[in-house]
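ok trying again, last paste got cut off:
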Amino acid sequence: MTDDAFLGGALRILQPRDGYRAGVDAVLLAASAPLEAGQRQRVLDVGAGVGVVGLAVARRVADAEVVLVERDARLAELARSNVERNALSERVRVVEADVEQALGRQPALAAMAESFDHVLANPPFHTQGSGTPAADATKAAANAMAGDSLIGWSRFLAAMARPSGRVAVIHKAEALAALLAACEGRFGALKVLPIHPRRDAAAIRVIVHGIKGSRAPLGILPQLTLHGDENGFRPEIDLILRQGARLEI
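nice, full thing came through this time. structure:
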């Protein structure tokens, strides 16, 4: 295990040293959720891993109620430990369940269907059977999914979001077409945020926001650039990663 600081030390996260590891993607996704304190909004972190996305939301928004869903028993147990060690047990809980299984077979999830104001997801980036799988079984499971699983994930996100609820997904840039296709008929008012390592480099990630049931058209937002001319993060990115600032979309 490693004991890692997120949000400038406001979160302390235990995670496997050599397995699946949360990082910048998780913090950016959490920061992109348009939550405000005082509304007691419900947030679902899907495929939560060790819990960084949901815990970062809970730390930023003092009255947000967060549920972390993770299918891997080892990661789910680490997520529970991270909830407790960050003193967030009153507002954050972990549910061990599989996004790709029918809700009817998972009573704990079925009871929460259509109840979340915001649903956040960081799906596995790779397709099973393509490339060399990770040697670590947990990392391999976290990083790869079946070729059509984005459709299943989108169906699950829609099932859990309340009417007009919001969804946000971060994925590799080359998966954008598949991600938009998976959202069709479920989410509208889609906003695509391309994330570039540097201003003159191609996008490596996209964050896609949408609203359940909306028919509003797609919009492409100006790019988010992580690094300046030097190797460090740009000041506005540093504020998000170290001080928990919101990423406006």
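cool. The longest strand covers residues 161-172. Helices lie at 24-32, 52-60, 73-85, 107-110, 137-143, 149-160, 176-183, 235-243.
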